[in-house]
Amino acid sequence: MSGYLGSFVHQVDAKGRVALPASFRRGSESESFILIQVHEDALSLFPHSSWRPVEEELRELIRKQPEARASVLALTASALEVSTDKQGRVLIPDRMRELVGLRREALFVGALNKIEIWDPKRFRDSTEAPDPKFDPFIESIFA
Fold first, then answer.
1. Among the CATH numbers 3.40.1550.20, 3.40.190.10, 3.40.50.920, 3.40.50.360, which is that of 7-141?
2. For residues 73 and 58, is the Cβ–Cβ distance under 8 A?
3. What does the alpha-carbon distance between residue 41 and residue 101 come to, in Å, rounded to a whole number?
């Protein structure tokens, strides 16, 4: 798989399970994921293949800057490993859903090496006015 792209809205059931979009499952059916809250408004779902380099960078950060240990621990303390069930659903615990405002719907957003899980309204609010100072960088990438 070259990366995660696109966005999909899926229903969250009463137990907190939500179907991972089929295009995001393709090629990773037997792979588990790391579910973590890196950003205030969204959860991140890393396949193990993408998580390994992040984990190594976190280890290196602690080695080089021991004072970063508390921040790394704060991130990893609430992270957990999740797998899809036979119906392709992942379980998002209540505490994590509450942190990012997930209720009836979850918006899965392909974010290249990971998947972000958003409340659809929060995503719209967060992305409706992109910062124009990044336009030149975007232009240079797609030139």
1. 3.40.1550.20
2. no
3. 8
Rounded CA separation 1/112 (Å): 10
Q: What single string gives the DSSP state of each residue in the chain?
A: ---B--EEEEEB-TTSEEEPPHHHHTT-TT--EEEEEEETTEEEEEEHHHHHHHHHHHHHHHHH-GGGHHHHHHHHHT-EEE---TTSEEE--HHHHHHHT-SSEEEEEEEBTEEEEE-HHHHHHHHSS--GGGHHHHHHH--
φ/ψ of residue 79, rounded to 5: -75, 155
Domain regions of the chain by residue span: 7-141
pLDDT score, position 134: 85
Q: Which residue has the tokens 């974010």?
A: 111
Q: For residue range 81-122, list pLDDT tens digits in order.
A: 999 999 999 999 999 999 999 999 999 999 999 999 999 999
Q: Name the residue type at position 35.
A: L
Which residues in the chain come in under a pLDDT of 50?
none
